[in-house]
Amino acid sequence: MARQHETLPYRHVLTLPAMGSAVRIARETTEQVVTEWGIHRTHRIVGPALLILSELVTNSVRHASALSPNITVIYAGGPDAFAFAVHDRHPYQPSLLHAHLAHRGGLATVVELTLGLGGTAVLRTDADDQGKSIWITLPL
């Protein structure tokens, strides 16, 4: 079974150094990407998507930069969905379910916002278990 984001026709990849400015650059790039893909800035998912992305990039900068000097943001989109992932090369793999049930911290906010929009949040580990991506898929 194909992952939904793999079947979306639009793609964009952004690689940034794992430093504070990565959050701003990732947000600005996201705004450009959604606009280029025909998603209006006032669409109900854009504001929450920017917050979710900011939390994920911030987490990677804070917690993974010692082992992952770069962060990659992968965007995928189509007529029915907008998806993005934040990837780093730190081996720690947070539990999205635990974060959601604990109702604390940035990752809990990510999961709550995603589910509230009818979307999905999925952790995908690298083949060597030395990195991961958190994929967010939001319905349009």
From TrEMBL:
GO terms for molecular function: ATP binding. It comes from Streptomyces marianii. This is ATP-binding protein. Keywords: ATP-binding, Nucleotide-binding. Coiled coil: none annotated. It comes from the Bacteria.
